[in-house]
Amino acid sequence: MELDPLDPTYVNERLSQPPFITVPGVVNVRDLGLYPSETFPDSVIRPGFVFRSGEISSITEDGKATLRELGVTTVYDLRSDTEIQRYETPSPDIDGVDIVRLPVFKTEDYSPEMMAKRFELYASGKTEAFMELYSQILDNGGPAFGTILRHVRDRPNEAIIFHCTAGKDRTGVAAALLLKIAGVSDDSIAEDYALTRVGREPARQMVMARLAQMPMFASNTEAALNMFTCRHETMLAFLSLLRDRYGGVEEYISTFAGLSPHDIQQIRTNLLISNENSHIDVSS
C-alpha cells in the first residue's frame, strides 16, 4: 500500500545519501543544490546555499552545530502562530543563526470553518484537492516567499533553511518556486517533492499522534495517512497550475512577491553555478 510504513533499512539508507542532510533533531532536511537547469545548459543549483526541512523545534545541540557548520545564517519559518501554539513547538534559539517568522497563513485563516475545510481537502488525498490547497498557499504566501527570494538576491554568501511543519506543502511550494526560477525541469522538481515521503518517515509516529488529537482524524486513520502523500504527479499538477492560473513563476513572483525582472535575474544568477558534469540522483 502506498501509505504503509516504509522499510526502515531503505529509509536509513536513503536518508544517508544526497540530497538528504543529517541535522540531529530535524527531519526531512535536504540541500536543493546540484539539480541541473534545463533552461540554462551546463548550470546547476549551487550546493550548500538553500536547504529545506521539516520544523526545527526539536533540534539538538549537535543539530544546531551542524547548521552552523553548513553556513546557515537564517532560518525562515513558514508556520502559523496557531500551529506553533497547538503543537507547542516554538522556534529554538540558535547562536549565530537568525530565526525569521514568515507565516504563510494568518491567524484568521485558522478559524474552525477554514480548518475543517482544509483538513477535508488534505484527508481526501486527491490531486485536485491538493491543488486547491496549493492555490491557497500561492494566494497567501507571496510576502513570505518574497522575503526568502530577497535573501537569495541580496545575501548569496549566507546559506538559508526554510521550513513549515512537515516540510512538504508550504515548503514544497517555496522550493518549487526557487527551482523553477533556476530552470530546473518539472520532473526534477517533482522528484524533489516526492522525497518528502522518505524524509518525513522518521516522524511518522509523532505526526499520527498529533493527528489523533483532532476529531476528524481520530476516527479516520485513512484520512490521517493521506497527510503523508507526496506524489510525483501532485507536484506536476501544481507546476501546471502555476503556469495556467498564475502565468508562470516569473509572473507569480512579480505579482505576489513584488519582485522585478531584474530581481529575478539576480536571484537566478545567485542560485546557479556552471558545472556540466554535476548531477544528483533523486530516483534511487
Structural account:
By secondary structure, the protein is an alpha/beta fold. The chain has a single domain (8-274), classed as Protein-Tyrosine Phosphatase, Chain A. Helix content is 50%, strand content 10%. The strands form two sheets. Strands 1-3-6-4-5 form a five-stranded mixed beta sheet, sandwiched between helices. Helix 4 crosses helix 5 (127-154), helix 5 packs across helix 6 and helix 6 (170-181) packs antiparallel against helix 7 (186-194). The chain is globular, with a radius of gyration of 18 Å. 39% of the residues are buried.
List the helices and strands and how they pair.
Layout: H1 8-15, E1 30-31, E2 43-45, E3 50-53, H2 61-69, E4 72-77, H3 81-87, E5 98-101, H4 112-124, H5 127-154, E6 159-163, H6 170-181, H7 186-194, H8 196-199, H9 204-211, H10 215-218, H11 221-225, H12 232-246, H13 249-257, H14 261-271, E7 272-274
Parallel strand pairs: 3-6, 4-5, 4-6
Antiparallel strand pairs: 1-3, 2-7
